[in-house]
Amino acid sequence: MKKIQAHPYKIYRGSDNKIIVFNCENLFFAEVSPLHILILKKMRFFRKFPTDLSLLRYNKKEIDEAFEDLNELGFFTPVKISKKPIFYLKPRIKGFRIVLTEECNLGCTECFVTKHHQSLGTFSREVFNSLVEKTIFYGKKERITYHFFGGEPLIRFDYIKEGVKRINTAVQQGEMIKPIYAITTNLTLLNKEMIEMFKKNDFKVGVSIDGPKEINDKFRIYKGGQGSFKNVKRNYSRLVAAGIDAHVLITPHIKFLDRLVEIFQGIIKCFPMKTITVNTPLHYRTLAWNVPGDKYAKILIELAHIAKKSNITLDSALSPIIASLSNNVKRESPCMFKDKCIMASVNPKGCISFCAQNWHNVLAVNSVKKIKIPVNITSKCEHCQVRYICGGPCPIFQLISGEKIDKQKCKFMYTIIKEIAENIGLFQKT
Description:
Strand 9, helix 6 and strand 10 (204-208) form a beta-alpha-beta unit. Helix 1 (34-42) crosses helix 2, helix 9 (260-270) runs parallel beside helix 10 (293-309) and helix 10 (293-309) crosses helix 15. The chain has 15 helices and 16 strands. The strands form 4 sheets. Strands 13-12-11-10-9-8-7-14-15 form a 9-stranded mixed β-sheet, covered by helices on one side. Strands 2-3-4 form a 3-stranded antiparallel β-sheet, covered by helices on one side. It has a two-stranded antiparallel sheet with strand order 1-5. The longest helix is centred in the last third of the chain and has 17 residues, at 293-309. 35% of the residues lie in helices and 16% in strands. The two termini are 43 Å apart. It is an alpha/beta fold.
């Protein structure tokens, strides 16, 4: 018999006192016997059929039948673990996050760019135009996304106009499929010309807001010290009135994590939208989680309840987990599913990195060849119950921080599976 591993990711006792197994491999809920549970526990680690003394109280026929039950339900997976696991990141790009400039018109107290950069870069016109030309190739067969980012990207609205004009010409000439345009902005610089351009080109506009006025204006302030909330809310209303697809992005501040539910509700009340994004607070350089994972998991579930009740889609660290479970797909790395496209990040120097979170030298490439990123899969990961919905450790986090796993991310993953199982109705289509 081949070596196999059981994947009983979480085991619960239901309200009727029956044992329930939640299996992330196949999103299958099955009522099982204590013998099933015992076999699953014995086979969590790589081994052949269990034969230890704890099974002596069952006869061979019972054990064989239970084993076959579990095998048919897909609770066992053939195991083949290489000594030096490698992630293969394919430069099959689905979009470009273009950091037009690291400069900003605001003086936000917690800005990760201004706090960590001694000098702030901006694309030169020559480099930007060259980048646009190079990206057209990627949209020839597949629809890609251009995501304009900063700093504050509207500082270089002239670049956005020029880029969109060239891309639209490429579409008209049959050089590429019509792309998706998106931008993340603080919205304070919005004017009539920008609104018209966003409308004409079907831009998806993400607006960064930290909370209701009292919280937002503690952090997102102009360089003179005054808050930005009033101006942002007014400009957001202008986008909505023009029929532009606008939504809010929240990056929770650790000081206000206990008030995140309140913040979330306040923003939904003030800003109409179809989608809302809650970013996971990460350390700027290492990408380590800056929030207690177990606590954050429970908060996101609560936000998911509120979003569903308000008929709004929540995009968060919860989203790829739900996608993995609902589509019965293993996550082979933390940033993507196996054999899927990825988002590239481009810095103001025009350098491309295959990491959507930030630009990193270790992921930078100059060609379309495959790149191999070595990842230290620890024994904890090999035997982890949630490995294939987590995707494993981030290679950039490992290389930069020197750590093998992000403990807070691990806590989040373990807790979120339990929360999903206990709130399964929240994620079922109605």
